[in-house]
Amino acid sequence: MSRTLYLIAGFIALGLGGIGAVLPLLPTVPFLILAAFCFARSNEALEQRLLDHPRFGVHIRLWRERGAISRKGKQAALAAFAISIAIALLFAPLPWSLAPVAAALIGGSWIWTRPER
To answer: Is-above-0.85 flag for pTM?
Structure first.
């Protein structure tokens, strides 16, 4: 039963990663890392396909081996945080507009402290 749940969760994460490849503010690689995690526990062939992917496989391997995020990935995440903050400050009333600021400070500082390649 748990293999089936991991397989379902893997496909959901893979789908969200696919959507993230098209939508600029939805992350792709974290969902693919999650999908690889789930597939490792349910279907090794699907996990291997993700690890062998020419574009995303290297990011999954970096995360697994060293908990590393590429500099380009860090910059993209911080740019997305900045856009979210700007949109919130323009359109949301106080104090709600400060929630993205807090999330960016917490999430951004954690992302920036991860090792790089």
So the answer is: no
Q: What distance in Å separates the CA atoms of residue 76 and residue 73, rounded to the nearest whole number?
A: 5
> What is d(CA 18, CA 26) in angstroms, rounded to the nearest whole number?
10
How far is the first Cα of the chain from the last one, in angstroms, to the nearest whole number? 37
Would you say 38 and 10 are in contact if contact means Cβ atoms under 8 Å apart? yes
Other Cβ atoms less than 10 A from the Cβ of 44: the count is 10
Using the predicted structure, report yes or no on whether residue 110 has a pLDDT greater than 80: yes
Apex CA 77: angle with CA 20 and CA 35, to 5°? 45
53: three-class secondary structure by DSSP:
coil
pLDDT, mean of residues 97-114: 91
pLDDT for residue 84: 87
Return the closest-CA partner of residue 51 out of 93, 59, 92, 99: 59
Q: What is the pLDDT of residues 62-89, one digit of tens each?
A: 999 999 998 988 998 888 889 889 999 9
Task: Answer whether 56's CB lies under 8 Å from 28's CB.
Answer: yes
